[in-house]
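<backbone_tokenisation>
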Amino acid sequence: MKVSVILLNWNGRKLLEKFLPSVVAHTPSDVAEVVVADNGSTDDSVAMLRERFPGVRLILLDRNYGFAEGYNRAIEQTTAEYTVLLNTDVEVTPGWLTAPLEELDADASVAAVQPKLLSRRDRSFFEYAGAAGGWIDRYGYPFCRGRVLSVVEEDRGQYDTPADILWASGACLFIRTNVYRRVGGLDARFFAHQEEIDLCWRLRSRGYRLRCTPQSVVFHVGGGTLHTESPYKTFLNFRNNLLMIYKNLPDRELPRVMRLRRVLDYFAALHFLLTGHAKNALAVVRARREFRRLRPAYTPVRVENLRLSTLDPIPEQMNRSLLAAFYFKGQKQFDQLMPCRIKN
């Protein structure tokens, strides 16, 4: 089989019932297999899958390993040339496999591809978790073609040209299976959130290209696992972002970036506190404490990442502050931040 489309499930029967039919309907069986890897669900997801979707391959994991390690373990059990990591709250469309697979087939330097992600709640707008492909600023803040911080753009065809990107959304990520394994897959210690950005940063720094093919369109609900204001989600996002920076940022940048991030993170905690989100404020403090605890264990990982890096600087990393551009210059759309990179 050329492609394995893998959905990672944990107690998600309702999402599977709603969105898996589109995946099965629009995934030709002569090209790809549809796989559900179950992360030790305690609901009746597995029984439902066996009854209603007998053609879907099941991988049963013994417990909830989280997004990162759950996918790592599932991908160990595929022999396909390409793997698609697909969230269970994604509705795919006819022909969704075509453009990404053509991109991978045409150029061996392309390691990963994402389609255009639109919001299923409002189909005329991009979806927060990937839009038309991700970039990052010099301080580790991710943004997208079509989404900058909290501002999500309407899709007017402005990003319909295929383009190089720094990171592809884990909501729908096409990747070469052998490359995924070669670079170590997703970081299991992240558990969930920003693990795909870390993986893509590793890929890009080692000379692989990542692409967005907007001719392929999927609709993503988003926030299906953890609510936007969940303190645990805040903790994971802040901790994992710091770990990702520490793992991947070159030596010449790291001290300055980490000093400023300390200030910005505590400012974010203060903002949470003053706006009535005390638990989220505490989550930021806990995230920084946990980062300090984990940092020594990540030092060998950082050394190895930098040793294998062949691309510096990375073209899809904005060499200035996203926060300054957004809040002080009013640049709240990708075409305002990077006007020369709309087409590629």
